[in-house]
Each structure stands twice: as C-alpha cells, then as structure tokens.
Structure prediction request, 112 residues.
Amino acid sequence: MYVIIQQSESLFLVPRVMGNNLELHPFVVLLALISGAAVAGILGLILASPVVASMRLFLVYIWAKLVDADPFARQTPVRVVPDIIPVALPQGASPALGDPQPPAQQGEIVKE
Prediction:
C-alpha cells in the first residue's frame, strides 16, 4: 500500500505542485524530470525543474524583446469573483444589524 501511495504522489502530485509554483505545465515538469534523470541521474532530477523554469524566463524575455513588449510586465491570471446577490431587507431594517430604523423621506438629510 505504501508503494502505491508513494508512486502516485511522485507521478501526479509533485509535478502539479512544482508546476504551479514555477508557472509551468505539470507535463513539462514531468518531461524535465525524466530527461534530467536520463542525462545526469540524481543531480539531474534535483536541477531539472529550476533549469526549465530559468529557460522559460529567458525565452519569455527574448520573445518580449523581439515583439517590443515589456518583458517585466507581470501577467497575473484573472480570477473571477462572483457578484454578491443583494438581499432585500424589510423596510426600515439596517443592513448591518437588522435593527429597525425609520426610513428616510425623499429630500431628507440623513446623518450616519
């Protein structure tokens, strides 16, 4: 059982975690680990991911210079945050605590 858990962790979890941290696809990390192990053994396994991440940064820099873009512009992924659906409160209820307050009349100045 331990061998199955260890192998599944090293084949699926480690490339995904390293890929997210290095901003690389997990398949690229897996290929880097395989090629690093084939070329340099244990040292290749240790250095494969940092070398591929450095190569990616270098290539992104070269590409940005070729197309006259800012090579240091941070491209953060856009995260979609759902809108909060407004809840209709009963007339005269305060949105903070639900304490009843007299409703303001039109043209009346209300001090908060």
Remarks:
- Residues 42-66 form the longest helix (25 residues).
